[in-house]
Amino acid sequence: MSDRLYRWDLRASPYLYIAPFFVLFAAFGVFPLLYTAWVSLHDWTLLSDEHPFVGVANYRELFGDPYFWNALGNTLSILVLSTVPQLLFALLLAHLLNRPLRGQTFFRLGLLLPNVTSVVAVAVIFSQLFGRDFGLINAILESLGAGRIDWQNGTASSHVAIATMIIWQWTGYNSLIYLAAMKAVPRDLYESATLDGATGLQQLTRITIPMIRPTIIFTVVVSTIYGLQVFAQPQLFGGGGPTGITGGNDRQFQTLSLYLYEHAFTNGFQFGYASATAWVMFAVIVLGAGLNYLFVRKIRSTS
Amino acid sequence: MTRRLVYLSLTAVVFFSAFPLYFSVVVASSDTSALSDARLLPGAHLWDNVVRVFDTVPFGTAMLNSVLVSLSITASVVLFSTLAGFAFARLRFRGRTAFLVFIVGTMMVPTQLGIIPLYILMAKIEWTDSLRAVVVPALVNAFGVFFMTQYLSEALPKELLEAGRMDGCSTQRLFWHVVLPVARPAASVLGMLTFLAAWNDYFWPLVVLSSPENHTVQVTLSQLRSGYVTDYALSLTGTVLATLPLLVVFGLLGKQIIGGIMQGAVKG
Amino acid sequence: MRRVLAPLLALCLLTSAAACGSEAAKDEKVKLTIGLFGDFGFKPLYDEYKATHPNIQIEERVSEYAAHHQNVTAHLATNTGASDIEAIEVGYISQFTAQPGKFHNLLDLGAGNLEGKFLPWKWQQGLSGDGKSLVGLGTDVGGMAMCYRNDLFAQAGLPTDRDAVSKLWPTWADYVKVGKEFKAKRPEAFFESSGNMFRAMVEQGSQGVYDKQNNLVVDSNPGVRAAWDTSVDAINAGMSAKLTAWTPEWTAAFEKGSFATIVCPAWMTSYIQTNAKNASGKWDVAAVPGGAGSMGGTHLTLPKQGRHPKEAYELISWLTAPAQQAKVFKATGNFPSAPELYSSPDITGFTKDFFNNAPIGRIFSDSAKAVKPQYMGPRTGDVFTAIGSGLGRIENGQQKPDEAWKQVLSDVAKLK
């Protein structure tokens, strides 16, 4: 290879490799972004042909709406309740799987089953678990002498139930991601640790976690992003109908995505207002993901 | 932790993970359209319900469309994400961090609202009601790029690349001969997750694909739960049928992760 | 691209419309697409129609209820992608009739002479606010009755014969009184949730939640407040099972028999029959308090972007004609909106053995006939949702009635 060609290869290849994303984004991502930003400055209902410009009125109305703040609070609460146990649990599962075991494929496939199960089945199962009158959990509570819990109508109880659905659905997914990363950790590190008498748990915290730190950062950031956009689980938990969209009669489990959807598609098709909500949500997600990123990095540097 | 305990806890997790799917099979093999709470064993009506699904909706066509869509998206996402991940993790170029932050940032845009402007766009270029409209925008995604970047930045030994450079390999040769083998475990996980997401995508295909002959499986399945009375047996039979291809793909790609272990062992 | 398109477009405008597709020549094949949310029982009718209209092809596009309406909205908003014919349910219809510009005016296509074929209030629901354009032709109506568990009634010492039961509750206040008697004897709930009952009461009035100038009258219409108070009275007496419609738990409650009565539109009878298989003979049907009402029902509309309005109109006027509605009713139980059928033996003689052979054809006919036309404002569905949530908060003990009412008023005021 000639020298000039070699230098050109070094300089241009990286750009060439990341180009497909940006080409597609330029084609299909930019326009929707700019469009919704523009729409968010208008009184824009989907069905009407007139869209008067209103400036930041949608944003002002949004910040003045207690239901928006309520949705933000619910979203954060569900995020914490679901993400923390889910990632810890996933890490532990991956650690258990990262050793010579019989039936590896069986266990791995099993972990992904929640992601292939249809939403209809998920809705039915979980409402039978968390049902007030005929639910399995309440039947157990009652037989233990504790009272029944009206899962859906309490704020905390509904958040716990929804977080359970999320944990159930995404733990296996994250543990596979961790497992793939753990496969890349050199075996000899573990071998010498075993010779030094390190326990399994010590190997996890002292070798595995530092070695797969980039992947941990990945899962924390991605879970934060997806967690702040959570939509399907609270909607299914509410029965899928209008009560699902408002997150219960008292909006006790309405998340930001449900709030956005309510305004865009069920409550008067307020496209302008919903667009403003989307942009504020975007800001919230950037903030949340950024904070979590710094947090994960900090843990590493102090340990 | 003793071995027996490991097996026990993993089996328990798989049991809880599998139960709702098992329950779908139970309902799918029952003869009523309603849910019966006490039922835990499969009935004998699975075949009747399968026949009903095929009679009610064009299920075969929809499966074919979904396979086509999901396979092309998966192949493309895995390739382009690995390329970009390699560039971000191990190549040096101006603006690297900024580009990566931008890509991750695009994941943070709430998706539900993008549907309408994207639809307007598709109408302008006359792609509505064609599978292109579902496939092309999904050929690369931020999730995949970010995932591969993080994985390769921990798994791809710098020394290996330097040795390759010394031998005068072009970047492209490095990619095929050094990066791809190392990326295999992550690439197969990414492949599974991408196939899964493409297969289960519902919101956008529903809006953009109107003719029945272009429907994907999820769009077709939604017909089975329409109407005043939900026929759960019919609806869950459809979803169970639609799950089978996923299990096949998982079986195939799941083995690839084990292949990756061997690679890692040799390299490590 | 645009440079090529513009002259083409100009050419189109200059030459006759036939070349560019707006009106098809007589012998040319025309494909009509029809977007529905569920099985409307139209499939056998298409074949019949095609026999007399050999140039018409029909393609049905079915999706699920919420997805269908969201889809129609997206397609109307972007002016592309809608089917030639779109079904719109009554819960959404007023938002669409508020935008008649998005639809072909059926009056221009000759629908004026069909008015007498439909129930007056059903006809009115399809009209735009100014009454100048007709957006949709009605298919079915809910009709309304009160379904009740005769075994629970017997155990509570109440009459079980349907005529006697109907006589128990000429008004809603009487219904609540019966509920109190029932609760004194039985642990089961008297009804599943208060939202349906509230809605039925309001819809029986001459004015609903809007006046004809589209002003909200939730606060000022005494009928709304009276309906609220009656519902609150029933809730306080512990009559509600506090269930949310369409949830699996609601469905299970039918089978378990955990409530004694439910406001029952015609299609609800199929629902009960499917979901409470083991309760055959235990359910029966009486008249609804207040004498009349309807819940549910659909209109067929022609979005403006459809290119074959004439052919599409011809098809929907045929599908909604009394003869076809009668066929649909017999096949699916969807109750017709054509009053001339209400005296035909086909309908009035219709009984269901699941409901102790109740003459549901006659009961629903009487109820549908007696409905007074009521003006529906643009956001009626959302208003009822907000009020239903308010009643739900009282049922669940989250709020006192006064607080709930205050929040309902502020929620409703935000609906523009």
Automatic annotation (TrEMBL), chain A:
- Which GO BP terms, alphabetically? transmembrane transport
Membrane-spanning regions, if any? Answer: 12-38, 76-97, 109-130, 160-181, 211-232, 276-296
Localized where?
A: Cell membrane
Entry protein name: Cellobiose transport system permease protein
Q: Which family does it belong to?
A: Belongs to the binding-protein-dependent transport system permease family.
InterPro entries found in the cross-reference section: ABC_transporter_permease, MetI-like, MetI-like_sf
Membrane topology per record: Multi-pass membrane protein
Please state every residue range assigned to the domain named ABC transmembrane type-1.
72-292
Record the organism: Longispora fulva
Q: Check the record and name the SUPFAM superfamilies matching this protein.
A: MalF N-terminal region-like, MetI-like
Alphabetically list the UniProt keywords: Cell membrane, Membrane, Transmembrane, Transmembrane helix, Transport
Q: Kindly give the Pfam families that the UniProt entry links to this protein.
A: BPD_transp_1
Q: Which CDD domains match?
A: TM_PBP2
| Primary localization class, coarse | membrane
Task: Tell me where on the tree of life, at the top rank, the source sits.
Answer: Bacteria
What does the entry list under GO cellular component?
plasma membrane
TrEMBL record, chain B:
Question: Does the record carry Cell wall biogenesis/degradation as a key word?
Answer: no
Keywords attached to this entry: Cell membrane, Membrane, Transmembrane, Transmembrane helix, Transport
User: What's a BP term from Gene Ontology annotated to this protein?
Assistant: transmembrane transport
Keyword Transport present in the record's keywords: the answer is: yes
Question: Which InterPro entries did the record assign?
Answer: MetI-like (IPR000515), MetI-like_sf (IPR035906)
Listed transmembrane segments: 67-88, 100-122, 134-153, 174-199, 232-253
Please provide one cellular component term from the Gene Ontology annotations of this protein.
plasma membrane
Localization: Cell membrane
The family database entries (Gene3D superfamilies) matched by this protein are listed as: MetI-like
Q: What's the protein's topology in the membrane?
A: Multi-pass membrane protein
SUPFAM superfamilies, sorted: MetI-like
- This protein's source sits in the domain of life called Bacteria
The ABC transmembrane type-1 domain sits at 63-253
| Family membership | Belongs to the binding-protein-dependent transport system permease family.
- This chain's protein is named Cellobiose transport system permease protein
What is the species listed in this Swiss-Prot or TrEMBL entry?
Longispora fulva
Species lineage, top-down? Bacteria, Bacillati, Actinomycetota, Actinomycetes, Micromonosporales
Automatic annotation (TrEMBL), chain C:
Q: What's a Pfam family this protein contains?
A: SBP_bac_8
**InterPro entries recorded:** Bact_solute-bd_prot1, SBP
Q: Which UniProt keywords apply?
A: Signal
Q: Which organism is it from?
A: Longispora fulva
Keyword Glycoprotein assigned to the entry: answer is no
Which parts of the chain are coiled coil? Answer: none
The name of this protein is: Cellobiose transport system substrate-binding protein
Specify whether Ligase is a keyword of the entry: no
**Signal peptide range:** 1-19
